[in-house]
């Protein structure tokens, strides 16, 4: 039986966080940080960081829907970032840190819209997550790939990513890869 792989693209602040969070889930074949949603071709990190390219820091996921459903990805996405802050996640400020779902199918679009509609009353402020069609993805530079895995002792990883992974472990242990359950 052939494995069916789907693509999903999420931006929820720094892509080091989204890559670490989604990369911990079972059914994720790959979690690749990069840039999407903007107008500049093949941008660099420095260019995206200016906020003038229109791109967001995103993580492109290849996933097996037989192991993890898109709805599960939505649940984890909204539980591990603040979807009510426009162009900001914590100390990361700028349009490149916006909350965005770049859907690759009409079914993903519909599920994201339904999910946000149902979730809207759960927050004190309105959800500002953009839902847009996926167009093109630019892989981030090599030093951004597997950042958390390669830099777990860095202050940013310990202060920002570790708490997200601990929350993930507590709330979504059933979705985690068995070999990643002990963080």
**Tally of DSSP helical segments:** 6
Task: Tell me the CATH superfamily.
Answer: Peptide methionine sulphoxide reductase MsrA
CATH domain fold name: Peptide Methionine Sulfoxide Reductase, Chain A
Total domains, how many? 1
- Give unreliable regions as ranges: 179-183
Q: Name the helicity range.
A: 25-40%
Active site: 14
Keywords: Oxidoreductase
Function: Has an important function as a repair enzyme for proteins that have been inactivated by oxidation. Catalyzes the reversible oxidation-reduction of methionine sulfoxide in proteins to methionine.
InterPro entries: Met_Sox_Rdtase_MsrA_dom, Met_Sox_Rdtase_MsrA_sf
């Amino acid at each position: 039986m052939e494995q069916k792989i789907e693509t999903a693209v999420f931006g929820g602040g720094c892509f080091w966080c989204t890559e670490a969070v989604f990369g911990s889930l079972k059914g994720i074949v790959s979690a690749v940080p990069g840039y999407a949603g903007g107008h500049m071709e093949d941008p660099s990190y420095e260019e995206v960081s200016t906020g003038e390219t229109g791109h967001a820091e995103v993580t492109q996921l290849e996933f097996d829907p037989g192991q993890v459903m898109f709805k599960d990805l939505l649940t984890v996405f909204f539980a591990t970032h603040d979807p009510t802050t426009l162009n900001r996640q914590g100390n990361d400020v700028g349009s490149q840190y916006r909350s965005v779902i770049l859907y690759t199918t009409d079914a993903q679009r519909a599920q994201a819209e339904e999910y946000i509609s149902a979730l809207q009353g759960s927050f004190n402020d309105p959800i500002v997550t953009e839902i847009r069609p996926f167009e093109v993805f630019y892989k981030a530079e090599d030093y951004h790939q597997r950042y958390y895995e390669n830099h777990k002792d860095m202050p940013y990883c310990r202060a920002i990513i570790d708490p997200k992974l601990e929350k993930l472990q507590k709330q979504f242990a059933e979705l985690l890869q068995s070999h990643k359950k002990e963080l």
